[in-house]
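I'd like us to work through together how a protein chain folds, taking it slowly. To get us started, please write out a protein record for me. Label the sequence line and the structure token line clearly, so we can match residues to local backbone shapes. Once you have written the record down, we can walk along the chain together.
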Amino acid sequence: MATVAEIFGSTLKWIRMQRGITQKELGAFTRLSHTFIGEMERGLKAPNLEIVVAIARALHVGVDEMVAGFPTRQSIREQVIASEMPSAKQVDQ
């Protein structure tokens, strides 16, 4: 079974990559080192609550999405897909 740090790390990496942000860019946004971000993504380091909040803000997601892990990924995927799909008004035009 995956640890909380591993679940958080894989969720962090997935969301970061979906946003097209590098570890260095996320580090600049959050004032964390890219090395520490990489360690979190690999589940080697567990962040404290202040760091989770800073990362969530930088990635424009809720803290719950950062810590909920895999089940929340589906909702994030649906949001991304929905944002890329034309609306009913656009289709009718």
User: Anything to note?
Assistant: The chain has a mean pLDDT of 82. Helices lie at 4-18, 23-30, 34-41, 49-59, 63-68, 70-84, 88-92. Residues 4-92 form a domain with the 434 Repressor (Amino-terminal Domain) fold (CATH 1.10.260.40). The longest helix spans residues 4-18.
